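Structure first, sequence second, as always.
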């Protein structure tokens, strides 16, 4: 028994060290970075908005998009075979504004309901080399959104990763969990991009040059994967030299979070099933972080239950929580999510349990074709 506990103790320390390395040398690269003021640019940009049956959201979204504080942009509106009033609204805007271009997508047998097919048509129709993406159900709160995102383009930096936040729902614990999950994800992909290993982005707030799209033959390598028009593209096209990040508050987009646990789980299943298509290194680093996180906590509980080196174990575990909490807190503050910082220890456990559940669910039941 003593030998077993000693092995578990060593394993616990190893997992703690792995966690410490992630927090100190990866995630801190975003959390503790000092904001750098970029030179404002006015490169010709095409803003691409994909929509399918989003009339109600577009009524509030489009007025913000056509009044951006930017001198040289076109607005490419993609109607993906909507059956509500989306197309009528788009046509009205195309008639009213000369810089609005409408792309009508009709369903076909080969790419039925495939968002990547619709986006490809929109990208090909865009007249400008620089592209900026968002979805119809996103809310843009600043007239300087385009200005902030495009200011990070340079001769070398041709992919800009932005942050997509979720609207706050007062008194909702689920809403806080979803926003906590989004912040954790953002800290991770921003941090890896900072150290030259970008692996994902979000289509709700993403910019890149058209040439990057064609360099990897668009979405062709994952066209049959219903999700991943954002993260799988970035995973394939991004590299050490061509990717940068934008996290100024005026660049944020906001979406409605799921309001039921079941809906959120389905969304997480979609994200989890997409990650299996990442590059090997990216799957390895994500998997190693999750495993070290999980077993650091589990082994600590086991060792403490047997009171084995309990002073060392409790001290190491306490240090881990304090240090991780600080790194997360600074990152969350940068993303204007201060209200969830206090929940870190509890929500970390909830997310771990959720990830374990999703892993078993996806193993037993193959995910459906996502819309």
């Amino acid at each position: 028994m003593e030998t077993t506990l000693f092995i578990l103790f060593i394993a616990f320390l190893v997992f703690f060290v792995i966690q410490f390395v992630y927090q100190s040398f990866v995630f801190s690269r975003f959390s503790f970075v000092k904001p750098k003021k970029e030179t404002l640019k006015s490169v010709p940009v095409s803003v691409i908005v994909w929509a399918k049956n989003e009339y109600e959201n577009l009524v509030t979204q489009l007025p913000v998009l056509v009044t951006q504080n930017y001198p040289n942009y076109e607005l490419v509106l993609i109607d993906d075979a909507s059956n509500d009033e989306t197309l009528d609204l788009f046509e009205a805007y195309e008639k009213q504004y000369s810089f609005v271009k409408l792309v009508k997508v009709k369903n076909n047998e080969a790419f039925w309901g495939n968002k990547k097919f619709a986006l490809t048509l929109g990208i090909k129709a865009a007249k400008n080399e620089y592209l900026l993406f968002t979805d119809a159900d996103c809310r843009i709160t600043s007239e300087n959104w385009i200005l902030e995102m495009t200011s990070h383009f340079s001769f070398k930096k041709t992919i800009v990763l932005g942050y997509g936040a979720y609207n706050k729902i007062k008194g909702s614990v689920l809403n806080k969990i979803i926003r906590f999950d989004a912040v954790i994800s953002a800290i991770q992909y921003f941090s890896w991009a900072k150290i030259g290993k970008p692996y994902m982005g979000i289509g709700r707030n993403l910019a890149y040059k058209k040439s990057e799209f064609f360099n990897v033959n668009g979405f062709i390598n994952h066209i049959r994967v219903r999700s991943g028009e954002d993260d799988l593209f970035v995973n394939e096209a991004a590299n050490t030299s061509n990717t940068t990040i934008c996290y100024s508050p005026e660049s944020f987009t906001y979406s409605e979070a799921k309001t039921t646990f079941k809906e959120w789980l389905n969304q997480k299943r979609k994200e989890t099933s997409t990650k299996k298509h990442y590059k090997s290194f990216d799957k390895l680093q994500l998997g190693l972080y999750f495993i070290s996180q999980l077993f650091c906590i589990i082994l600590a509980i086991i060792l403490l239950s047997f009171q084995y080196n309990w002073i060392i174990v409790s001290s190491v575990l306490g240090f881990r929580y304090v240090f991780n909490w600080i790194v997360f807190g600074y990152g969350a503050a940068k993303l204007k999510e201060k209200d969830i910082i206090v929940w870190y220890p509890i929500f970390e456990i909830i997310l771990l349990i959720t990830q374990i559940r999703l892993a078993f669910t996806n193993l037993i039941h193959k995910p459906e074709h996502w819309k």
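Margin note: The chain is about 50% helix and 10% strand.
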